UniProtKB/TrEMBL annotation:
Signal peptide: none
Identification of the protein by name: Inositol hexakisphosphate and diphosphoinositol-pentakisphosphate kinase
Any one GO MF annotation of this record: inositol hexakisphosphate 1-kinase activity
Subcellular location: Cytoplasm, Cytosol
Taxonomic path: Eukaryota, Sar, Stramenopiles, Oomycota, Saprolegniomycetes
Gene Ontology CC: one annotated term: cytosol
């Protein structure tokens, strides 16, 4: 008999029983008396048909006793004519490498089987351009993109610049993705902007444990072949693959994106780790559209969710989930349903069925990872003596009918087990961590520097003219690589032209080109200092008030102010410290059960978002932190672009120095007051302390007593700067001799590529700018710069044999001035600190309040499958809402991410699928740290009066949170302005006791008084805990813990090996067994990176002795409602009348 007369046996599966295998391999042809059995062919490459997922699905179909399964071999598919292929009623057929797709299509034309996946549409999947066309035509969102076609008669022209490309008039800015048009080519590149460090990432099919590599110096796009260029969408490091089985069933799995660090996470059997997640209704409709548009019943596609909007970026065609028993059960049942319905529909019609069974007209369908059958249908795996579909009145794929809705009246076994586990945990009455909110200062940076000079040379004026806005004489900022290179070339030519006459009578350059030839030389040295990458320097051109362009009649008055800024970059030490801080957060702030934070995060029960200002050092600190926090590998640029959200213009004031605008007038007043106080002689030290430290802060009092007489100390400081700059100049001269002798210019280089010449110039400038002989006064705004420079140089440049003789004395005196000056820039008395603090931190406080409110939100609409059940205790409702489809969430800064599908919890051995922890990390500069700390410490007048009234009352009054509607409106207006969802006021108004003892503790106030500095990586941590068994209206259900760390500490003369391997003193937490709160303080480890004091009153630092500071808990037991109310009151206290003026730069 011919080969077409017999079923081709399934390849043996190691999981089959003997009975199963006997059934599988039997040549079964039913007699006419028996019920009809359909022949279902599997026509694909053996590598695919023998795969475990395919075997699992076929085994389940085979058990139904309704199908004869015929698996085509490669020998038959590739070599035998289609006339000899088995005759099938229905067929699974799909392309993979080597499969003869056209031959299979000819077979379909000949035999007309019902196709599970249409073959002709699989040709579309070969070309990503055609895929996007189909998606767009069917109303599915795709990333904004441009296509470069080079396979036609007239190839498209691509214009490439430093940070963008232009194709057919469409500009795509970096970061962007470069995808080959050929869908079989998986070499996808991502190009990063110079603002993030530049370079590119190459994605490829997994090789071992790698799926991508970063190339820091490759910035040019490929020039051969056709490509799609699309905007890179920040998905917070998550990739989601959706697997459909028909238009009404979908299974979504998420994984760590290969864009992050390229390391593939694998399970114990070597499979890539993925976790099922829940799709929202929009995404379910997308899955339906993709399935129907491409006529692929079994279909996989890639989904991106960004700011509440979902996009499809790739469609793969035939795809099965790997290693999920529940999915295999569901898939087997849905495919059985599909095949029987389609075959019976075809047989009941006189004409032949189309290749793809007609689908019902669309109304929003049920879509679930649950099988789409009613409860009375037999479950998967059961034996059937009769056709289980005899009573089926309609099923998906049949004309004019809809699938039965998924039943939510029952839980899957996995959900039931999970509920039992949670029920057990709830009986233990263990409070649960709900949110971690941290505000962190950036890490160790290079000194910030600035140079100003007036120029009128024609080449520089023309450089400005080419870049200014047409018809406007506006400021021009130069940061792009090509622009900086052009400017460097101009400066070199000017130096070459004017250098021979420098020093001669008439000073040619000063007459013809600018006000200082020495400044022109310094511009050249700074521009040549590093390769042109990143954001380590910028140049501004500002036209003078009387500026006229050269082309005008008065063009002789073409004078510009050239301002160059450089430095302020995160150092390698800062990167290490940021990574170590992230590591400590991961290990000490989160529950340790079930694998800790990494397990929580990878299983999509951790909602993480990281926000930064637009300053490069702040962004890179956040990226380094994220690397340690999530235990990532590799370069920071991909991590920065993938995980860190840089706030846009409307929200940037939350973390950027622009937030100081409203408080600028008050800040300038306090500075002016400090300037007067420090330029006076005093009769005694006590008189000086009383005048300059009105609040009597312990650290300030100690520093002022060291200063004693401010004018005399300022003169001494100036003299010490002169001694230090002289020392550095001498060291530089010796190094230059050695460099010439050895013919090695690197001898002149110190840390981070700086040269000794530039270091010397930095100190010369500080010495020159600190004192004005004309005004006979000192510029106190330079005090932070002096302190930063000496600390930086002692840490990184001058140590060991090159240590500075006078460096220690300068450091200690500068630190005393900074200790009393910097914190008081933001207010000297309580009223000033309250006013400035609330104004600068208003936007940030509103965002924190939003985070707290979300953490304390108790969802009321969840289905039983996802309830964090608490049988026997309270409401037992989950604290966070599911992925919603709220229109307000679209394109919102805050949006719901993916969440674990709890129905798979048992299979994945996850005991608490309902657990959700919300983490919000905010990276900023020192100014926001001071002002936020002032808000937490001093609150606002309205709040303090309420507390005073409560203290004076015989019994503490009961107050209802958010009882003042006007305060709610202020917060929501701010959030709306920043593009953040408002705080919904539909929850219960929790009453709480106004107990001052639950606010900041006396011990915390005392500890804060002894803090001398908010150093690098200083941070404030707010954690929210829930006791779920308590009623919703109970004030103790949620409690807030607030902790503070002054940042990395240590001694500037500590050996580099100790500093480089140490962690920061990030131990404002130090929790041994989260989420419980320690009853006592935990010491900070002794190995630190910066400056450590034995006591703030002891200024004689021993560089070899390090005494640990204790961490500072501001409060451990404040009711969540009370904290929310306090923030709302402080936010609303800011006057609507604000002054806008010059905005000081952040520290």
């Amino acid at each position: 008999m011919s080969s077409s007369s017999f079923p081709i046996p399934l390849p043996p599966s190691p999981t089959l029983s003997d009975d199963d295998r006997a059934t599988t391999f039997a040549a079964v042809r039913t007699s006419p008396a028996m019920s009809r059995r359909y022949v279902v062919g599997v026509c694909a490459m053996e590598k695919k048909t023998r795969s475990k997922p395919m075997q699992e699905i076929l085994r389940r179909l085979n058990k139904k006793k309704q199908f004869d399964l015929v698996v085509f071999t490669d020998e038959m598919t590739l070599r035998q004519p289609i006339e000899d292929w088995p005759i099938c009623d229905a067929m699974f057929s799909f392309y993979s490498t080597g499969f003869p797709l056209e031959k299979a299509e000819r077979y379909v034309q000949l035999r007309r089987p019902v196709l599970v996946n249409d073959l002709s549409m699989q040709h579309v999947l070969f070309d990503r351009r055609k895929v996007y066309e189909v998606l767009i035509r069917n109303g599915v969102n795709v990333p904004r993109h441009a296509i470069v076609n080079r396979d036609g008669p007239a190839p498209d022209v691509l214009e490439e610049s430093e940070n963008c490309i232009i194709v057919n008039g469409v500009q795509i800015n970096k970061p962007f993705v470069e995808k080959p048009a050929n869908a079989e080519d998986h070499n996808i590149y991502i190009y990063y902007p110079t603002s993030a460090g530049g370079g590119s990432k190459r994605l490829f099919r997994k090789v071992g444990d790698r799926s991508s590599e970063f190339y820091p110096d490759v910035n040019q796009v490929r020039r051969e072949g056709s490509y799609i260029y699309e905007e890179f969408l920040n998905t917070q490091g998550t990739d989601v693959k959706v697997y459909t089985v028909g238009p009404n069933y979908g299974h979504a799995e998420a994984r760590k994106s290969p864009v992050l660090d390229g390391r593939v996470m694998r399970d114990s059997v070597g499979k890539e780790v993925r976790y099922p997640v829940i799709l929202n209704s929009v995404e379910k409709d997308i899955a339906r559209k993709v399935c129907l548009a491409f006529q692929q019943t079994v279909c996989g596609f890639d989904l991106l969710r960004v700011r509440g909007t979902s996009y499809v970026c790739d469609v793969n065609g035939w795809s099965f989930v790997k290693n999920s028993k529940k999915y295999y059960d569901d898939c087997g049942l849905v495919l059985q349903n599909y095949l029987l319905t389609a075959l019976r529909y075809r047989n009941n019609r006189s004409s032949r069925s189309p290749r793809y069974p007609p689908s019902p007209s669309y109304s929003p369908p049920p879509f679930s990872t649950e099988p789409l059958v009613d409860n009375h249908y037999p479950t998967l795996g059961s034996s059937h003596s009769s056709d289980p579909f005899e009573h089926l009145s309609g099923s998906f794929g049949s004309p004019g009918t809809h699938p039965p809705p998924p039943s939510h009246s029952r839980l899957s076994s996995s959900s039931s087990t999970s509920t039992d586990d949670m029920h057990h945990n709830w009986h233990e009455k263990k409070e649960e961590l709900r949110a971690v909110i941290a505000i962190v200062r950036h890490g160790d940076r290079t000194p910030k520097q600035k140079l100003k000079t007036r120029v009128w040379a024609s080449s520089l004026v023309n450089f400005y003219e080419k870049r200014r806005t047409k018809d406007k004489f506006d400021e021009v900022k130069v940061k792009a690589v090509m622009d900086l290179q052009e400017l460097l070339d101009i400066v070199r030519n000017l130096i070459k032209e004017y250098a021979p006459n420098v020093g001669s009578k008439g000073a040619v350059w000063e007459k013809e080109g600018g006000d200082s030839f020495e400044k022109l030389l310094q511009i050249k040295r700074v521009l040549e200092r590093w390769k042109f990458a990143g954001i380590n320097r910028k140049v501004q051109f500002k036209p003078r008030r009387e500026y006229m362009p050269p082309s005008s009649a008065s063009g002789t008055n073409s004078e510009l102010l050239l301002i160059m800024k450089w430095g302020g970059d995160l150092t390698e030490t800062g990167k290490r410290q940021g990574e170590q801080l992230g590591n400590r957060f991961r290990n000490e702030l989160y529950p340790v059960e079930e694998g800790g934070l990494l397990r929580l995060h990878s299983t999509f029960r951790h909602d993480l978002k990281i926000f930064t200002s637009d300053e490069g050092r702040v962004q890179m600190t956040a990226a380094a932190f994220a690397k340690g926090f999530l235990e990532l590998e590799g370069d920071l640029t991909p991590i920065l672009v993938s995980l860190v959200t840089t706030l846009d213009k409307d929200a940037n004031k939350m973390l950027d120095h622009s937030g100081q605008a409203d408080a600028n007038e008050e800040i300038e007043k306090t500075k002016a007051n400090m300037r007067k106080l420090l330029h006076r002689e005093y009769a005694s030290v006590d008189a000086f302390v009383a005048a300059a430290a009105p609040l009597g802060t312990a650290s300030m009092v100690a520093a002022l007593r060291q200063i004693a007489q401010p004018l005399e100390a300022l003169r001494k400081l100036h003299d010490l700067i002169k001694l230090v700059k002289t020392e550095i100049k001498e060291i530089g001269a010796e190094a230059e001799k050695t460099a010439v002798l050895l013919n090695d210019p690197s001898v002149n280089e110190v840390y981070m590529g700086e040269t000794l010449v530039l270091v010397s110039e930095r100190w010369e400038k500080l010495y020159r700018d600190f004192y004005s002989a004309k005004k006979l006064e000192y510029d106190l705004s330079k005090l932070p710069d002096i302190y930063d420079c000496i600390k930086y140089d002692m840490l990184h440049n001058f140590k060991g044999a090159m240590s500075l003789k006078h460096g220690r004395a300068l450091f200690e005196l500068a630190e005393c001035f900074v200790t009393c000056y910097v914190p008081q820039e933001y207010g000297m008395d309580v009223a000033e600190k309250q006013s400035i603090g609330a104004k600068v931190s208003q936007a940030l406080c509103a965002k924190i309040r939003s985070d707290i409110a979300m953490a304390m939100t108790i969802a009321r609409d969840e289905t039983p499958a996802v309830v964090n059940s608490a049988i026997g205790y309270g409401s037992g409702k989950s604290f966070l809402p599911l992925c919603t489809d709220d229109a307000e969430e679209m394109d919102c800064l805050e949006h719901n991410g993916y969440r674990l599908d709890p129905s798979f919890a048992k299979e994945l051995r996850i005991k608490s699928p309902g657990t959700q922890v919300r983490t919000r990390l905010y990276f900023t500069s020192e100014s926001h740290m001071h002002t936020l700390l002032n808000v937490l410490r001093h609150q606002c007048p309205t709040w303090t009066s309420r507390v005073a009234a409560a203290t004076a009352a015989p019994a503490s009054p009961i107050r209802t949170a958010a009882s003042v509607p006007e305060e709610e409106e202020v917060t929501n207006a701010l959030l709306k302005q920043m593009g953040i969802n408002k705080i919904h006021g539909d929850g219960p108004k929790i009453q709480y006791e106004m107990d001052p003892a639950k606010m900041i503790t006396p011990d915390a106030l005392s500890a804060l008084d002894h803090v001398t500095e908010l150093d690098y990586l200083a941070h404030i941590i707010v954690r929210v805990f829930e006791q779920p068994w308590l009623p919703e209206e109970d004030e103790h259900r949620f409690r807030v813990e607030i902790a503070f760390s002054p940042g990395v500490r240590g001694d500037p003369e500590m050996p580099e090996i100790t500093r480089s391997t140490s962690t920061s003193s990030a131990s404002s937490f130090g929790i041994s067994s989260p989420p419980s709160t320690p009853t006592g303080g935990v010491d900070i480890p002794a190995a630190r990176a910066f400056l450590e004091k034995k006591d703030s009153s002891q200024m004689d630092l021993d560089p070899r002795v390090v005494e640990p500071d204790n961490k500072i808990y501001l409060t451990t037991n404040m009711p969540g409602a009370m904290f929310d109310d306090m923030l709302g009151t402080c936010i609303a206290s800011v006057s609507t009348t604000t002054a806008h003026g010059y905005v000081p730069e952040s520290v």
